[in-house]
Amino acid sequence: MLSFIRISILAILASLLSPGLMSGQNIDSLLNVADTASGKNFIEVNIKISKYYFTRNPVLALEYAKKLKSLSPKYLKDTATQIKILNTIGDAQYWLDDMASSLDYGLQILHLQEKINDSLGIAKTLNNMAVIYSQQGKLEKALDILKKSLEIRKKLGDEKLIASNYNNLGQIYYKLDRDSIAMEYFQKSVAIQEKYKNYELLINGYNNVAVIYMKEKKYSDAIFYLTKSLNITDSLEMIRQKPVILTNLGEIFNETGEITQAINWYKQSFKIAKEIKNFNMQLIVVEKLKDIFIEQGEFKKALNYSMLINEIKDTINQRNTDDKIEQL
């Protein structure tokens, strides 16, 4: 029975927070002035650089985001600037799968947005917090605040932003095993994304539609949408989303008995997950490879992957411990 990779809700969060695509020339010009800029210009430059790297190099994104942390106390009375700084740091933490830290920043941001009655910002923060609650398995809480976010956005009339709410609602209904409702929301989201040519969001929209087809064993349809998603990641160099897509392709070939191809897709996924230090994704893929080699009777390879699993778990546990110490 297939054990599908969770639908890629992370990308929706990132796309919401992304400033839009920048060319290599744009990012190069920002990098050239990153260290010489000062004051609010320094903040704006480093925010843009960090956001650019969210889906390309999340480790580097966090490095630039953390440069803003020391400046935060200087702008305590400037609520808008505080929100920008906290948003960037929290989002960078999210892309590195540090959900606890990201949620903590989200709560701080929401408090500030409520103080200045920033409806647009509140809707965005509620949506992003719902993403985290959903990943934590707090589905009812996620559903409640996601609907609040959707209600605000409908009043504001911004169809592009509503697309992300639809996708995230689809995520929750998928987890509740209400697949037909999930697919309805995914397709509504994808239709809006295609209308506005929002390719960053389409990476995940296509993947999510594919996951429903995988569950229905409509593998040709699933491969069609996963291929579309993968092509976009290649053209935009959005490396952060690739491990989920590649692993889902591995799942299809594993299920259809094409084991060599399955292993190939899994190994590609692991390689990228290792490059971007996505330890949770590494763990998922290595466990799948271990199971394959056990089934094939290649116990030495299975043992090697078992040892690797323990190493990755140790790394995850150590990182969680370090985060808790830092928060004290």
Query: Based on helices, strands and strand pairing, what is the structural class?
Result: mainly alpha
Major pleated sheet:
none
| Average pLDDT | 88
By CATH, the topology is: Serine Threonine Protein Phosphatase 5, Tetratricopeptide repeat
Number of strands: 0
Task: List the SSEs and their pairings.
Layout: H1 9-17, H2 24-33, H3 39-53, H4 58-66, H5 79-95, H6 99-115, H7 119-135, H8 139-156, H9 159-175, H10 179-195, H11 199-215, H12 219-236, H13 242-255, H14 259-275, H15 279-295, H16 299-327
Describe the overall structure.
The chain is mainly alpha-helical and 328 residues long. It has a single domain (9-327), classed as Serine Threonine Protein Phosphatase 5, Tetratricopeptide repeat (Alpha Horseshoe), CATH 1.25.40. It contains 16 helices and no strands. α4 packs antiparallel against α5 and α6 (99-115) runs antiparallel to α7 (119-135). The radius of gyration is 20 Å and the shape is globular. It starts with 8 loop residues before the first helix and ends with a helix. Mean pLDDT is 88; it is low at 1-23.
Relevant terms:
328 residues, mainly alpha, Serine Threonine Protein Phosphatase 5, Tetratricopeptide repeat, disordered N terminus
